[in-house]
Write a structure and sequence with these properties.
Phosphatase 2c, domain 1, alpha+beta, Jelly Rolls, rod-shaped, 18 strands, five-stranded antiparallel sheet
């Protein structure tokens, strides 16, 4: 391994470094000859940010990375190919290192001490002038960049950012090449995320639009009062609820929970809701409607999605509630005399096996009785200590609100869950429906 550079190589370096251009060639050669020839392995540091500026380096061969150190780690600012002079500004300004220089490849460099540089600058004012000119050009570059990036960030903030603004960054100055690429990537990601947010907002609006509106039960409000809420954990949810009049005497009510989260669950939810609306109108028996709906959902279910569902039909004249549970948890039947009941039927969720047959069960609801349906997001809600809200707390919460008007019942129940969860993230959808029998319908 050589310990010094040959004369011809030093002359070539001096001729290629602009800071030596105003000087006699021999002056630059003598400065480099006074330095120490060093070799660095890939990954070794030449300069560490924050350390004393006691020397400069002339990069002779190889590539070095310029890094800024933050509390989050290193940020890559630029790569410098030899020949290059680094660390000289700190030496003359007597400030700590403002960046870290690391060998990107095997690297050869000449280390020049502070005293030698100061003596050289005093003897060769042209060197100092050239160094200041080079520094001024860097500031000009950075000032232009700051102005451009400030404008671009303002455009991002106004939501009118056009990626055409970054065309200039495709051919940036070498000092800003890496930063420009990072900024371009950042802007592209922000623009992409904004487009995705808009798409998700549209998907959520479509999903909310599929839920039934209260005025759909205007014709039977004298006999039954229905209130419901669905709060997705994400932009769109995998829960569903539905209610509609099959005919003047029969009210269909469903609530369900699709496996998974996000768009796939929302799509399967929409399919399940549409299929069940069709089969409940077509089949007189609730179990037969679930059987037909399951066959349709399972037949083309390549992704193996499934949904738990509780579907029922309330006869407004007799008070008979015909129901079928497709893998869904039992609703709570709140009797007007303060009793609480649960149903017991259980079948496979929809979409698993197209041969599954579903059966119908029935109970009678009297005026004043309430049917409370919900998804597992209530019991599975967790606080920061990862303690579940659980079935026991849910039943206690229902007891606290059971006598309240329907809207307040739903609102206060959700609030009890929110108070328990506190500021822990909601990880599952919360969906609930309360149907209160007001009176019998008589012909």
């Amino acid at each position: 391994m050589p310990t010094r550079l040959d004369a011809a190589r030093i002359v070539n370096i001096v001729r290629r470094l602009t800071v030596f251009a105003p000087l006699p060639e021999q002056a630059g050669v003598e400065l480099i000859e006074k330095g120490d020839f060093l070799e660095f392995e890939q990954g070794q540091f030449l300069i560490k940010q924050g350390k004393t500026s006691n020397s400069a380096f002339v990069l002779v061969d190889g590539v070095a990375d310029v890094l800024a150190e933050t509390k989050y780690g290193f940020v890559h600012l630029a790569s410098l190919e030899a020949p290059a002079l680094v660390g000289e500004v700190g030496v003359f300004t007597n400030v700590p290192r403002t960046a870290t220089i690391q060998a990107k490849t095997q690297l050869q460099a000449v280390k020049i001490g502070r005293d030698e540089l100061h003596q050289f600058g005093q003897a060769n004012p042209g060197f100092l002038s050239a160094m200041m000119l080079q520094l001024g050009r860097r500031f000009e570059t950075f000032n232009k960049a700051i102005g451009f990036y400030t404008h671009a960030l303002a455009a991002l903030e106004r939501d009118d950012f056009d990626l055409a603004l970054l065309d200039d960054l495709k051919h940036p100055l070498p000092e800003l090449a890496d930063f420009s690429r990072s900024f371009l990537h950042l802007a592209e990601q922000i623009t992409l995320r904004r487009a995705q947010r808009e798409e998700m907002a549209n998907a959520r609006a479509i999903q909310q639009g599929m839920l039934p509106e209260q005025h759909a039960l205007e014709a039977c409000k004298a006999y039954v009062d229905v209130r419901a809420v669905m709060r997705p954990a994400r932009e769109v949810g995998g829960d569903l609820y539905d209610f509609f009049l099959i005919d003047p005497d029969r009210l269909a009510i469903t609530i369900g929970d699709v496996c998974g989260k996000g768009i796939p669950a929302a799509l399967f939810m929409a399919m399940t809701q549409t299929v069940m609306r069709y089969t409940l109108r077509r089949e007189i028996d609730v179990g037969a409607a679930a059987t037909a709906g399951n066959a349709l959902l399972a037949a083309s279910n390549r992704e193996m999605m499934f949904a738990t569902l509780f579907c029922c039909v309330l006869n407004l004249s007799s008070g008979t509630l015909s129901y079928c549970s497709c893998g869904h948890g039992s609703p709570l039947i709140l009797r007007s005399g303060n009793g609480v009941e649960e149903t017991s039927s259980f079948n496979l969720p929809l979409g698993i096996d197209d041969r599954t047959k579903y059966t119908t069960n029935s109970i009678v609801l009297d005026p004043g009785d309430r049917l409370f349906l919900f998804t597992d997001g209530f019991a599975d809600a967790m606080n920061k200590e990862e303690v579940r809200f659980g079935d026991g707390r849910l039943h206690q919460a229902v007891e606290k609100v059971r006598a309240l008007p329907s809207e307040q019942f739903i609102r206060d129940l959700v609030k009890q869950v929110d108070d328990f969860v506190d500021d822990a993230a909601q990880f599952d959808d919360l969906t609930a429906l309360l149907a209160t029998v007001v009176a019998r319908k008589f012909a």
